[in-house]
Design a protein that fits this description.
Shape of chain B: extended
Helix content of chain A: 40-55%
Distance between the termini of chain A: 77 Å
Number of strands of chain B: 0
Mean pLDDT of chain A: 87
Oligomer: heterodimer
Number of helices of chain B: 6
Helix content of chain B: over 70%
CATH architecture of the largest domain in chain A: 3-Layer(aba) Sandwich
Strand content of chain A: 15-25%
Mean pLDDT of chain B: 90
Number of domains of chain A: 2
Chain lengths: 285, 134
């Protein structure tokens, strides 16, 4: 079984020519964001790795170039800048959406998208639905290529590609409330080009799956923390109207233990608020 | 249209003035042709015929240096000779043939061209976006 097409690449259909155009764009100091969308299991991560490797001309460095979620993305973007790498994958970008457009995350991400071009970096953003992305993102003109993946089989998948101009039409049609299935819009707007992409060789696919699963499990952890209503030092400080330092000191003095430690961050049960409130009351008395 | 007593015209690039002169002359010739046809269709004496013929002659003399400059191939040189013969003729029909040839030349040079004809390779999204001003 071969893992490349006759052009020697894991994808066909003119994607290589378009990626070259994006590379030239970035070299001219212009920004470029490639969005890969599709329902889960259609090969977003696989295609994003293939796209990155074509842009880079060598294998991906998972430590620096593969990020899952916003926090990881910001950290790895900095790593890429330091290491002089010009490509990065922002996988599981579902945390960036228009419903939370006013959130700190969206604002911060929009700011990153406005300034990152200076570093000649191409961001490959893979998420479940293009429809959910912040509208401001399209208005800024940062995304240059939208790759919609679909119809994946055991050995290959399909993609449809849209430039910024066509992307705006996709977005507009998706915004129509009368369209219940947003992915159907991809059948109505003619893509600039389309093609197929093959799976990664088994050993590489396995490695990617492991890395991806690891990232996804950390997302489960985050969901659990937010579901249970656990609080970190900052949130406790906001609730008690005291400084983070004060909260840390009191927690240490009272010998309170965190219920969870995740990514070196301590999380406490809601009950701790009452204990700390008493401490505040004692101080005031 | 081109007014040499106007300061704006004098400060314009001479190439632009020339183009405007050609467009103006072509426009006058068309106007005269319209007048001539109107008179002919109404069974009137076509008094506009003389002015039409002179307009075509004028257009020829305005663009003659350009024709000589751009038409250097053998076939083109023959075409230029034919136009010259047609212009020197006293017949309106032959002058109209010369007029058509001159129109073709002006179209080639983009002076009588209109409408967007730039082809964009839509298979390269960035090219299409650039053409759309994005």
């Amino acid at each position: 079984m071969t893992y490349t097409y006759s052009n020697g690449l894991p994808f066909n259909g003119g994607l290589d020519t378009n990626l070259k155009a994006q590379k030239d764009r970035v070299k001219k100091g212009k920004c470029s964001l490639i969005i890969i969308d599709g329902i889960p299991g259609e090969g977003k991560t696989t295609l994003s790795v293939e796209v990155l490797e074509e842009l880079k001309g060598s294998s991906i460095d998972y430590e620096k170039q593969y990020a899952m979620g916003f926090n990881d993305f910001v950290k790895k973007l900095k790593k890429c800048i330091k290491a002089g790498l010009h490509e990065i994958i922002y996988d599981e970008a579902g945390d960036y959406n228009k419903r939370g457009w006013a959130s700190t995350l969206n604002r911060n991400l929009n700011r990153i998208f406005e300034i990152y071009r200076q570093f000649e970096i191409i961001i490959i953003m893979a998420g479940p639905s293009f429809h959910k992305y912040d509208n401001d993102l399209i208005l800024t003109g940062v995304p240059r290529l939208l790759l919609h993946v679909y119809g994946r089989t055991e050995s290959y998948g399909k993609y449809k590609a849209y430039g910024l101009w066509r992307m705006t039409y996709v977005k507009m049609k998706m915004s129509n409330q009368k369209v219940p299935c947003k992915h159907e819009v991809y059948n109505w707007v003619t893509p600039n080009f389309y093609g197929y992409f093959k799976d990664l060789p088994p050993d590489r696919a396995k490695k990617l799956q492991e890395i991806s699963a690891l990232g996804k499990s950390s997302i489960f952890e985050e969901i659990e923390i937010s579901n249970e209503g656990y609080l970190d030092f900052r949130q406790l400080s906001n609730t008690l109207d005291r400084s983070v330092d004060w909260v840390k000191r009191k927690v240490s003095e009272l010998g309170l233990k965190p219920v969870k430690v995740f990514k070196r961050k301590k999380y406490f049960d809601k009950g701790i608020i009452g204990v700390l409130r008493e401490a505040v009351g004692g101080m005031q008395a | 249209m081109v007014d040499f007593n106007n300061d704006v015209t004098v400060t314009l690039d001479k190439k632009d003035v020339n183009v405007m002169t050609i467009i103006e002359c072509h426009y006058f010739a068309i106007q005269n042709y319209e007048l001539y046809l109107g008179q002919s269709y109404n069974n009137m004496t076509p008094v506009a015929k003389a002015s039409l013929m002179s307009r075509i002659d004028t257009l020829y003399y305005i663009i003659r240096p350009s024709l000589k400059h751009f038409w250097k191939k053998e076939k083109e040189k023959e075409k230029l000779k034919a136009i010259k013969v047609q212009i020197l003729s006293k017949e309106l029909d032959s002058k109209l043939k010369a007029f058509e040839n001159m129109q073709d030349f002006l179209f080639e040079k983009g002076i009588l061209k209109f409408g967007k004809t730039k082809k964009v390779n839509t298979a390269i999204s960035d090219e299409e976006d650039s053409a759309k001003g994005l």
